[in-house]
Amino acid sequence: MGALLGPVQQRLSPPDYAVALQHGTLVVQLPSARLLDAVGVLKNEFHFDLFLDVTAVDWLPKQPRFEMVYHFYSTQHFTRVRLKTALNESDPTIDSLLSLYGSAAFMERECHDMYGIGFRGNPDLRPILLYEGFVGHPLRKDYPKHQEQPLVPYRK
Amino acid sequence: MVRTSIPIQPVHSKTAAFEYLTTKKDELVGWARKFSLFPYPFVTACCAMEFMAVSSSPYDTDRFGAALPRFSPRQADLLMVVGTVTHKQAPVLYKVYEQMCEPKWVMAFGVCATSGGFYQNYAAVQGIDKIIPVDVYVPGCPPRPETVIDGIMQLQDKIARSRHPIVTKDF
Q1: How large is the ipTM?
Q2: Residues of the domain holding A41
Q3: I need a labelling partner for B148 at 20 to 30 A (CA). Which of A57, A134, B46, B94 fits?
Q4: What is this structure's pTM?
């Protein structure tokens, strides 16, 4: 598990990156502008070839409000890595990983649906789980819990 | 609850054939219709497992004439909504209901179809009766087969007791 800690720490060094082992998983904390560089290094030099998931955390009312969480798996080292980066509420956009992983297209679409995160470089951010015309982003903490947006008019 | 029934008895003790029969039109049509329910299973979620259990031989809904699922709404007269209906799916459910010919009945199978169940959020329709009229609600998560059979029997009673106009004003 921790075998990659040293080499990754050496390659992704401070002050931009903070690499640590948390609960047995490699975790990299980084600024959002360096995401593409870091993922490129992890993919090409450390063989993290499987993109598992991208999601966001809404820390309302804390600032910066959003935290992006990426997970990758290496089919050569049989180990995972987690990338975390913070995003401001005023500009919740981040670089798309579409150039590195084709599977990013759908996962980023879902994240855009639920949290309203913009992905620079993803040309197709249509709703994937929600429907056209849905206003707002339901997994944001300020979305009212019971607010429905029906497509069929309710019976009287 | 008053159960109506069609008295079919031979008029002669010697033969089994009956020669005439007096009844009311609504009772006769209702009696025929309540034993020929053709369900359309609109199955969306885990309640489907219980639907399969109640349809198979140990519980045998064929006893109630409601065994043969029709997978075309044009051929069905009982819409069984089995499972959670989301807002994204609601237009589909509405279209299926509209496509069914009269007479038609609707059963809400399980708490999600009845009231939204524990999905009190942005995604789920809080009961299909917000969209289409429902005749019988079968609660449970999922309902026991006995509950479903009770629901079918209550629906049969309802059909037997209701008016069955042969020519409607729309016809």
Answers
A1: 0.81
A2: 2-120
A3: B94
A4: 0.83
